[in-house]
Amino acid sequence: MCKRTWQVTALTLLLITIPLSYSIASERLLSPAGTIALAAPRLPSQPADQVPPPNIRASETTTTTLYLPLVMRNYVAPVYPNDPAYEGDDQWGLNKIEGPKAWGITTGSSLVTIAVIDTGVDLDHPDLQDKIVPGWDFVNNDATPDDDHSHGTHVAGIAAATTNNALGIAGVAWNTRIMPVKVLDSGGNGSMDDVIAGMTYAADHGAQ
Fold it and tell me: What pTM, to 2 d.p., does this model score?
């Protein structure tokens, strides 16, 4: 085993031996004499009695701080929302993508805007109305991209419905904003020109 491979292996062993029950941001590991216990790997051809000592000596007062993302440690307290559709198992797909584990890490940010380029969005929907930002209706050429079909509202809800409010459904990214961009009519039909214009509008107006 080359030196670099041994170093990578040793670092991996060190990371996986850190306790998994403290703060998200960092872990502090300090042995009584400034020694970090580390089991050195043994080469296949190396006798057990020739394995290097399992200690890396640090200074007597050294505190080693290792910053590990929570997901890297494979530990997170799952979050289960109280929305009726989720609690009733209608939204089984959210469990398939391990939504509760993801929500334990983040529920999205209001600094992120998702453009729904579709049939519009129900602007008065109780699970969406508080997170809608201004959009545009390319079908009727006005600033009221209300949904007269339902598909766009359905998509917006899956993406970012207000969640854990004991109402309706759970969204994937709870706290993100929705920008409704209507490019399809009440029958779900539209032109490619309007679709392209809608994408350009969304990009130009801050959708991520």
Answer: 0.65
